Structures are given as structure tokens and as C-alpha cells.
Amino acid sequence: MVEPFVITTEPLDPAPLVAAVQTPDDGAVVTFSGVVRNHFGGRPTAFLVYEAYTEMAVPVLRQIADEARARWPIGRVGVHHRIGRLEIGETAVLVVVAAPHRDAAFAAAAYIMDRIKEIAPIWKQEYWADGTAEWRE
Amino acid sequence: MITVTVRFFAGHRDIVGRASAQYTLAVGTTLGQLWEQLVAEYPRLAGYTGRLLFAVNQQFGQPTTVLADGDEVAFIPPVSGGC
User: Fold this and answer.
1) Which residues of chain A, if any, have pLDDT below 50?
2) What residues of B are in contact with residue A125 (Cβ under 8 Å)?
């Protein structure tokens, strides 16, 4: 049983989340993976550390999915966000949206990701290649 | 008087030096007033004024939200989830 909205220290795997979100009504399933990259603002990154106010972040993710559902005809939504130390190339967030048609699924997935970056109580600390660190805020 | 728990995250926790603290406050104290008290105690928090989200008991609040005994408060520094 895959929960739709999860904050976890474990590596993220899209396959079980897609399987949990897709239903026979859906002709489209959009999966967005947010991945740790090796630079920000032209500066080399060594790794990232994510932190969440988990007890609040999970209901906020559910609220964001409800906002998307009020705007587009979509089906199930799943959002999994990882916390703790993540290396370059690892997946920090998965957003999966299923819908009868692709336009709504694409639009809703983009909206959900934008809203996560606006209001979900999740923070990222950038550890630079030169050994210094700072919160992205 | 009421007692509330304040949770500190990310840059706030670095400034305050701990993840949570209890505050005893006058009845009727608002979220905004508690934030001003924290800024007076930890002046380095001042740079976050106007860039915060407010939460009480894991729900978004406003500076005018009146606190109640036992509330869990969080002043949420600018968030940066995703990649």
C-alpha cells in the first residue's frame, strides 16, 4: 500500500507511486522527478540536505493536490518528497498526476510543483563544493 | 497566562540554536506579537520579518491569529522544496 502524500528519508521510486495513482479511467499519467543537480547560480554543489516540518508538510501536499483538482479534471495525485542528505543525481521529489486526458495532467503537475515551492514547509541546505553551506531561502 | 511550543526550522533553528522552545504568554497574544518577541530575543531573526509563513497547530495562520494554551506555533522561513 503506497500512501499518496509522503515525506521520507528513503530513496524515491516512481514505479509504485505511478501504480497507486493510475486507474482505468486515466489516459494520461504525468510523472515529474525533481533531481539534485551539481550547480546552482553557477556555483558547484557537493550535495543537498532537505528538512521538513513533516506533520504540516503532509497535509499541505494534500491541500495542494485538492487545489489542482479544483482547477483541472484530474484523477488521483501522489507527491513523495525526500528529506535528509541527497547526492547529485538523486530524486528529491516525485509528483504523479493521473487524468483522463494529458492537458489536464501536465498542467496540474506543473501547478503542484510550483505550489510546493511556494508553501510546503520543506527546506533545502546547499552544501557547496568549497565546503561551505547555506539554506536556500 | 498561556503556554505555547514554538518549532524552529532551517535558518531559524541555526539562529536560535534549538529545534523548539516553550513560551509563556499573556492571554490574547497574537502570532505577530510572539514573532516580535522572538526578534527582540534573537535580533538575527529580524531579516525574516515580512518573508514568513505563520502556522498554528500545523495549519496556516495570520499575524493577527490569537494563540491558545497548548498551541504548537511555527514561523516558517522561506521554503525551498523541490529542486
Assistant:
1) none
2) 10
